[in-house]
Amino acid sequence: MYKKIGKIVLIIGALCLVFVLAIGFIKDRKNTNEVTATGNSIKTKKDNNEQENDSKEEDNSVKELRISEENLSLKIGDKYNVEVKGLLADGSLIDLTNDSKLLRHSDNEEKISIIDGEIVVLDRAEADDEVTITYVYENISATINVKVEATEELKKEEPEKEEPKEEPKEEPKEEPKQENNESKQNNNYNSNDDTVMIDEDGKQVITNQKDIHVLVNKQRNLPSDYVPDDLIQPDIKFSFTHEDPKRYLREEAAHALERLVAQAKEEGIEIVGVSGYRSYKRQETIFNYNVKKRGYEAANKVSAKPGQSEHQTGLAIDVSCAGVNYKLQEKLGELKEGKWLAENAHKFGFIIRYELGKEDITGYQYEPWHIRYLGEDLAKDVYEKGLTYEEYFEQYML
Ligand SMILES: [Zn+2]
Fold first, then answer.
1. Cα of 317 to ligand 1 centre, how many Å?
2. Mean pLDDT in residue range 222-249
3. Which CATH class is domain 167-397?
């Protein structure tokens, strides 16, 4: 009789224990999710239930995540690899950084993304943005806060050497003085040239905007309402992961770029897209933003006027590579990726549009990252003659 009661008590006891443990487990899973959502600095969780089990069965599972940083301050374009370690029951640490079970999540993918396991600050980010990155290993999580540092003010004496990553500063390099610029526009006008007409303000407006061979520069303006009607997204890797008009190019150029990137890859060279199509409106926003922030003259130095950016044609794209952290820097030209581009882009119909030492002709400083689609025949000819597109246009196309 007592034995029987004892047995029943034991069974009820066991059932209660299972129930309590199950509740504990569910509760703790919730806690873990809350930590992930609120995104405070390092907090780790592991449910008690599992800890008990672990101590009986598998003493060496991970109890806690240890991250090399709690708070990070990064600039736009920066890439950062955080070291993640797991604390085991016996007090030892194992490196989980490259463990395939370690998951990473950004709570604002548009600004800071995880690319190949690294934290990458995208060009959409702005100074003082804060983004939480959550690391999850099995059911343990830890978070770090990443704050975006202000990009250095554009140097006043020294001309800007790269297209800054912060959006409103894109496409710098422009003649500072408006008056000079405008008088130049008229001086450069060639009456044999039917690819432009002069509008009521004396401005040259391009008439063959849909032509793959269209020449756009600081004298020759695209119509403000021109939007290519065959924009598509090339199937290549970009330096950011979000959806963006910058991913687009005109169809012919997009497919040519896919072939270029694939051939490069075959030769062990990784070329990544950074910025392709840019609308007149977008350029206007960038330009007006800069006028407001810096005044007209300075704005003119750091951003192209709307209508004067080759990116509006959908035939130009800025590309980069890991060696310069996917930034647009002159140094790209010295890397194997930049050299490969300079030697091979024409085979796929692209030219390096703003070459070193040709600033006076193109109006732009050296931009080894800016490639322009002209079609294979023309690109090859421009390349072989060693001319800028301005020179070639004048000598062979008028
Ligand atoms: Zn560009």
1. 6
2. 97
3. alpha beta
